[in-house]
Design goal:
This protein is α+β, with helices and mostly antiparallel strands. It has two domains: 45 residues; 187 residues, Jelly Rolls, CATH 2.60.120. Helix content is 19%, strand content 27%. The strands form two sheets. The chain has a five-stranded antiparallel sheet with strand order 2-3-8-5-6, with no helix packed on it. The protein has a four-stranded antiparallel sheet with strand order 1-9-4-7. The longest helix has 19 residues. It is globular, with a radius of gyration of 22 Å. The two termini are 14 Å apart.
Length: 237
């Protein structure tokens, strides 16, 4: 490797390291709002166990009331009318990763059943090939990515055909992430491992306030461009 190529490589990697620490504050809203698709639009979330639900016609929850913006909503897994309490595959839907700050807060809404009062420590507690049961959960979690630890969780206070709104305020989040590195990333996720009476639930209007999204810096992008230009010239020589 010649001196010029080596210098460009060093510049590019240094720039990427700088860019990785650069982030822009943002408010992210996941409203799953494609009307009529029965929650099939997941706004970039991930089906962790790759046991994707089906979205058949005649689905339940066509008229859940109260507290929710109009449009679509996410209900995983999906059920046809009359089967909403039946056993289904364990399910985790996970948001894209983000960083939290001292002013971050998280708003969300849950409709439907409460599930059991049990709590998971991390996603590894949940069988990726198992099925729901009466001891399972219908909960919203905040997860620390580095060690797959669940830091906060929330379920509905009661079973109802309505939406219940929740907020994890900045003080709650600050307490949960105390001691974490500033570069730590997090996800929120919907866990449904419950079946039985009121064995169906869903989420909507998940809003991540004042979170950080890592972005490559202009310097990093310029350096990568210079590296590519240098390699191109070298091949032509």
């Amino acid at each position: 490797m010649n001196t010029q190529k080596r210098a460009l490589l060093i510049l590019a990697f240094a720039a990427l390291a700088i860019g990785a620490d650069s982030a822009a504050a943002a408010t992210l809203t996941y409203d799953f709002d494609v009307t009529g698709d029965d929650g099939a639009t997941i706004d970039g979330w991930t089906d962790v166990f790759s046991r994707a639900p089906s979205f058949p016609s005649g689905t339940v929850w066509a008229s859940v009331t109260g507290g929710r913006a109009t449009g679509g909503y996410a209900r995983w897994p999906e059920h046809t009318s009359g089967t909403q309490d039946s056993q289904h595959p364990n399910h985790i839907m996970r948001s894209p990763a983000f960083l939290l700050t001292a002013t971050s807060s998280i708003d969300f809404q849950i409709g439907g059943g409460t599930g059991s009062a049990n709590t998971y420590t991390n996603s590894s507690d949940i069988s990726p090939t198992g099925d729901s049961s009466s001891t399972g959960q219908q909960k919203f979690y905040l997860r620390r990515v580095s060690d797959d630890t669940y830091l906060l969780n929330q379920r509905r206070g009661s079973n109802a055909n309505s939406w219940q709104s929740f907020t994890w305020d900045s003080a709650t989040i600050a307490g949960a992430i105390s001691g974490d590195a500033a570069s730590e990333t997090y996800t929120v996720e919907w866990v449904d491992t419950y079946s039985g009476s009121w064995g169906f639930a869903m989420i909507d209007d998940v809003v991540l306030n004042n979170v950080l999204i890592p972005e490559p810096s202009t310097f990093a992008l310029t350096a990568i461009g210079l590296l590519g230009l240098g390699l191109r010239r070298r091949r032509r020589a």
